[in-house]
C-alpha cells in the first residue's frame, strides 16, 4: 500500500473525482480530499492510497505538474505524519520552555525569582 500526497488542488475536486483520476493508473484503496473542519470547504490537498508501489509511481510520474482547472497539481509520495506531541508547553513535569533550565519559575532573571 502506497500513500500519495496530492497538493494545490482546485476546490472543485472531490473524493470521487480524485479517486477516478488515479484509478487510471491502478487500483485505488482510498482517496480523500482534506476539508476545513469549520467550513467544510476543501483545503486544497488530499491523499490517495494505491494498492501497490508500482501503481503509485506510475500515477506520480503521469500526474505531477499536470494542470487541473488552471492549477498545477503537486503529486508525490506522502511522508509519514510527524508526531507533533502535545500542543501546549505544559507537561506533567511542569511548565518548561523548550526544556531550558534558565527559563521558568524561580531561576532568577526577568519575572522574579530568588531574592
Automatic annotation (TrEMBL):
Tagged with keyword RNA-binding: yes
Family annotation (CDD domains): RRM2_NsCP33_like (cd21608)
Top-rank lineage group of the source organism: Bacteria
Entry-linked PROSITE patterns: RRM (PS50102)
Gene3D superfamilies: 3.30.70.330
Entry keyword annotation includes Transcription regulation: no
Keyword tags: RNA-binding
InterPro entries (alphabetical): Nucleotide-bd_a/b_plait_sf, RBD_domain_sf, RRM2_NsCP33-like, RRM_dom, SLIRP/GR-RBP-like
Residue ranges occupied by any RRM domain in the UniProt entry: 2-80
Protein name per its UniProtKB record: RNA-binding protein
Amino acid at each position: 500500500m502506497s500513500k500519495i500526497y496530492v497538493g494545490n488542488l482546485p476546490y472543485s475536486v472531490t473524493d470521487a473525482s480524485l479517486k477516478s483520476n488515479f484509478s487510471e493508473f491502478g487500483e485505488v484503496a482510498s482517496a480523500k480530499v482534506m476539508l476545513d473542519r469549520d467550513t467544510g470547504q476543501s483545503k486544497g490537498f488530499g491523499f490517495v492510497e494505491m494498492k501497490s508501489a508500482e501503481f503509485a509511481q506510475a500515477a506520480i510520474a503521469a500526474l505531477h505538474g499536470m494542470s487541473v482547472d488552471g492549477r498545477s497539481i503537486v503529486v508525490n509520495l506522502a511522508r509519514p505524519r510527524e508526531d507533533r506531541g502535545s500542543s501546549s508547553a505544559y507537561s506533567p513535569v511542569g511548565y518548561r520552555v523548550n526544556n531550558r533550565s534558565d527559563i521558568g519559575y524561580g531561576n532568577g532573571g526577568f519575572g522574579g525569582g530568588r531574592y
